[in-house]
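Why does residue order matter? Because the sequence determines the fold. Keep that principle in mind as you read this record.
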Amino acid sequence: MNEIGKKIRDVRKKKGLSQEELAECAKVNLRTIQRIENNESEPRGKTLNLICKSLNINAEDILDYGKQTDKSYLIIFHLSVISFLVIPLGNIILPLILWISKKDKIIGLKDIGVNLLNFQIIWSILAFLSITTFAFFKIMHYEYYPILFYIFIGLCALNLILPIFFAIITNNRIKENLYPNIIRLIK
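Structure:
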């Protein structure tokens, strides 16, 4: 809450506006501006949009105040998925730890993390089912069991290629929701 009020005050001062001028331009009560800037209340909905329009800034700029852009962390976050090669369920555990520790500090990480983790959970379930079914069919001597092994290898290849590809895309530009969003287990 105090970050939003501070950001609005900083932008207002940079624009050379008084609280009265901002209130008049935004068509809100002067006391509302004072409460927001003194951290007594938080602007929501229409009030936030009116203030941002008067200051000629985006509401996202206000809401992301205090967050930083860190492409290198996002790249490491994407590549952390590859830990599944060394650690069972590392494709979920390591990104989850990285996501929880910085999701409120880095712009875009919250949405990217949700999307990546949802994909990795579904991927892990499919990989487990394919290798388990392969083993069962092999024990039972079914003749089509190699297909399931090839599916497992394909899933592993997919989970190697996608993180590297998305890390390259993130290095060039920050883009959210790169992974296919099949089922949203984490919101």
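Residues 109-139 form the longest helix (31 residues).
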